[in-house]
């Protein structure tokens, strides 16, 4: 949860900064709406964390909830704010920002590789578009934002930067394919090389326990 909160903070703030620089000569109406959403995201996240930290327990106690829910909330709050150590926030912020900048740089390289004559995006534009695409999966309307992200990226490219629809679609699809398949490929390699347990020990332990119980019976 706290990882996702930091992600949304970074995406919104970096996207706002990149959009301001990219549209410093004037914000189109559609981009003004996007800016408004970004500001709302930052404000809501900040207010939510502040409320949870200072008033969360008081609010939950006053609600007619089972005791198990109160225990679950206590553990959840402890986990959230136990992960947020003040001295670690600067390094977490820097690493989170750098990670999301790699997303933007990938889109920039995709645009450069396709070399469309009528597409002029620039690095700030690539940052803005990529982070808008990264913000869309925060609303779980489809698995990993499938279809939602592509449509959003195409829409921003076409409306905000005047990229023709065929070129915008090609950029969005190629960037998405690289993003998804790189995770599948490198994630599979990491999974194959990982020494983490995969559940087989639990299955074997359960089987052994069942066997011992039947023997004892």
List keywords for this structure.
217 residues; mainly alpha; 8 helices
* Number of E strands: 0
Q: Helices and strands, in N-to-C order?
A: HHHHHHHH
What percentage of amino acids are in beta strands? under 5%
Q: What is the overall number of helices?
A: 8
Average residue-wise pLDDT = 79
Query: What separation lies between the terminal Cα atoms?
Result: 45 Å
Global morphology:
globular
**Helical content (DSSP H or I, runs of 4+):** over 70%
- Return residue spans where pLDDT drops below 50 for at least 5 consecutive residues: 203-217
The class by helix and strand makeup works out as: mainly alpha
* Rg over C-alpha atoms, rounded to the nearest angstrom: 23 Å
Q: Outline the biggest β-sheet.
A: none
Notes on the protein architecture:
The chain has 217 residues and is an all-alpha fold. The protein contains eight helices and no strands. The protein is globular. It starts with a helix and ends with a helix.
List the topology elements.
Blueprint: H1 2-22, H2 29-62, H3 67-83, H4 89-114, H5 122-135, H6 148-161, H7 165-193, H8 200-216
Helix pairs in contact: 1-2, 1-4, 1-5, 2-3, 4-5, 4-7, 5-6, 6-7
């Amino acid at each position: 949860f706290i990882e996702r909160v930091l992600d949304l903070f970074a995406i919104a703030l970096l996207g706002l900064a990149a959009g301001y620089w990219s549209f410093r000569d004037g914000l189109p109406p559609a981009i003004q709406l996007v800016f408004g959403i970004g500001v709302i995201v930052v404000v809501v996240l900040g207010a939510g964390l502040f409320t949870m930290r200072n008033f969360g327990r008081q609010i939950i106690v006053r609600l007619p909830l089972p005791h198990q829910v109160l225990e679950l909330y206590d553990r959840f709050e402890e986990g959230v704010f136990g992960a947020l150590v003040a001295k670690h926030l600067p390094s977490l912020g820097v690493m989170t920002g750098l990670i999301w900048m790699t997303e933007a740089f990938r889109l920039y390289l995709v645009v450069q590789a396709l070399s469309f004559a009528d597409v002029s995006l620039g690095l700030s534009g690539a940052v803005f578009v990529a982070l808008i695409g990264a913000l869309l999966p925060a609303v779980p309307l489809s698995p990993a934002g499938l279809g939602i992200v592509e449509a959003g990226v195409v829409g921003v490219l076409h409306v905000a930067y005047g990229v023709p629809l065929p070129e915008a679609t090609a950029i969005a699809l190629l960037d998405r394919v690289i993003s998804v398949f790189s995770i599948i490929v490198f994630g599979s390699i990491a999974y194959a090389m990982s020494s983490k347990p995969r559940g087989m020990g639990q299955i074997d332990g359960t089987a052994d326990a069942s066997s011992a119980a039947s023997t004892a019976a």
